[in-house]
Amino acid sequence: MKAWAVVRNNEPLECIEVKTPEPTGTQVVLAVEACGVCHSDLHFWKGSYNLGGGKTMTLTDRGVTLPRAPGHEVVGRVIAAGPNASGVTVGESYIVYPWIGCGHCDDCLNEDDNLCTAQKSIGVIQHGGFAGEVVAPHPRYLVPVGDLDPALASTFACSGITVYSAIQKVMPIAPDKPIVLIGAGGLGLAAIAMLRAFGHRAIVSVDLDPAKRQAALDMGATAAVDGGGEGVAQAIIEAAGGPVRAVIDFVNATSTAAAGFGALAKGGRLVNVGVAGGELSLSLAGMVFRAASVVGSNTGSVKDLRAVVELARSGKLPAMPVTRFPKDEANDVLQKLKHGEITGRAVLVEA
Ligand code: NAD
Ligand code: ZN
């Protein structure tokens, strides 16, 4: 099969030929119909992460070998299934849960694969949706698309569950108490949609780009703050009408985490989601006096995926903006994402 793959970091993806998967055991092979392009694909293409303190983590440290087709927001049509893969229908379309765990640790047995320390994620450790086909190791990782739009549904596999899981970490918060979202890209807009599905009415969005701030307001944010320059914490506090109980940082760089933490009220919580990277310096006694918490949030579980799909089916989840691109434009799309030219999510589709 053909795969748009990272062959060398920071160099254009190449369309290469890789072995067409043949399913064994419980495996299911799906022909990719739609694949959302997440900023994590861009980090993957670059090949390293800023861990703060002058340290970096490379893809090799994460067990990745190249060439590898990225893409973890996949909707695909089942084309083949192993002899022990029951409950899937050949020809039907499914959202593929990508954050596959080892399958036998306590977290995997609890369907919390995203907490497994031996992940074999699709689009990271195995070929993802930038390839023609993907392999799900078991039907339990598949959720039927039904009559949802496949391009929008593909985004649920990462952005949808990531924002769902991050929002769970700050709830319960009364619907009229502000929740601050730093970053109004794919995740930030998905989070506004999710908060609206939960009936939340006070949402402050922070972004550097005026066009992204406008997109956030269009999506339903109640205020938008310029995240550039000095005094961002104070600008957030002013826009929110006071210090806040919840900030979710979809950028999570040294400057944004400091601004988000600085805007917290007593008892407030900062959730780290983005992986721009850097570090946050905390006063330990200050943490106690402010009863503050800082918590990392790593994607979501297949249970979260089912919950997000149910919300979408109920009609409560507004659609975030998605723009379809032919898969052959994968390189251009990565560049557009890198340069901030995508509003919401770009989704690669078969031409
Ligand atoms: P995106 O490129 O679609 O959006 C990023 C947005 O952040 C853009 O609108 C950009 O203008 C804005 N931004 C950049 N720097 C900023 C700053 N200093 N202040 C305010 N706004 C700023 O990216 P995305 O797909 O939404 O992903 C966001 C981040 O989340 C990425 O780092 C991605 O790798 C990460 N991510 C994490 C998880 C997880 O499980 N924790 C899951 C998916 C993605
Ligand atoms: Zn992602």
Task: Walk me through what this model shows.
The chain has 351 residues and is α/β, with parallel strands linked by helices. The protein folds into two domains: 2-158 and 300-349, Quinone Oxidoreductase, Chain A, domain 1; 170-296, NAD(P)-binding Rossmann-like Domain (Rossmann fold, 3-Layer(aba) Sandwich), CATH 3.40.50. 28% of the residues lie in helices and 25% in strands. It has ten helices and 17 strands. Strands 3, 6, 7, 8, 9, 16 and 17 form a seven-stranded mixed sheet that branches. Strands 12-11-10-13-14-15 form a six-stranded parallel sheet, sandwiched between helices. Strands 1-2 form a two-stranded antiparallel ribbon. Strand 13 (244-249), helix 7 and strand 14 form a beta-alpha-beta unit. Helix 3 crosses helix 4, helix 3 (150-168) packs across helix 9 (302-314) and helix 6 (232-240) crosses helix 7. The radius of gyration is 20 Å and the shape is globular. 49% of the residues are buried. The model has no long low-confidence stretch (mean pLDDT 97). It binds nicotinamide-adenine-dinucleotide and zinc ion. Nicotinamide-adenine-dinucleotide (NAD) is lined by residues 38-40, 43, 158, 162, 182-188, 206-209, 212, 227, 250-251, 253, 255-256, 273-276, 297-299, 337, 340. Its cofactor is Zn(2+). Keywords: Metal-binding, Oxidoreductase, Zinc. GO terms for molecular function: alcohol dehydrogenase (NAD+) activity; zinc ion binding. Its EC number is 1.1.1.1. Residues 8-348 form the Enoyl reductase (ER) domain.
Brief summary of the model shown:
This protein is 28% helix and 25% strand.
